[in-house]
């Protein structure tokens, strides 16, 4: 089956499209995450993508180049660890079509084969069943539970730790 999406790095010209995606998808992602919806935060995101320890990837639809989601690899470590933390979100208009699985698969390939990482981790709130099902489909293994791991919406939230190594990637 041919791919329906591709990934690319974000540019300043993407800010308006990213802001629109975030605005229309805000309720869809509640209470799991809260992507910012203002121009300064978007510009800060684009700037952060220039750092060595962060890689932002836009997931775009082949048919019209529209941004349908975002995958981020953060806290990229090299040396003995060779690890990154994966986060992602999709445009509500494209949810449930399998496009995010395709996009995250490309992001993982990028992490392992372009960045040369050994391991990718995703920390997910236990109630976020759709996200957990996504990483399960991609072959991630549940490695643990982190109490009060991240502060989201002014509350410390528990997270499950899911990981994938290059040896387990197919």
TrEMBL record:
N-acetyltransferase domain: residues covered: 5-167
Origin species: Hyella patelloides LEGE 07179
Similarity comment text for this entry: Belongs to the acetyltransferase family. RimJ subfamily.
Keywords: Acyltransferase, Transferase
InterPro entries reported for this sequence: Acyl_CoA_acyltransferase, GNAT_dom, N-acetyltransferase
Keyword set includes Phosphoprotein: no
GO cellular component: cytoplasm
Any one GO molecular function term: protein-N-terminal-alanine acetyltransferase activity
Stated name of the protein: GCN5-related N-acetyltransferase
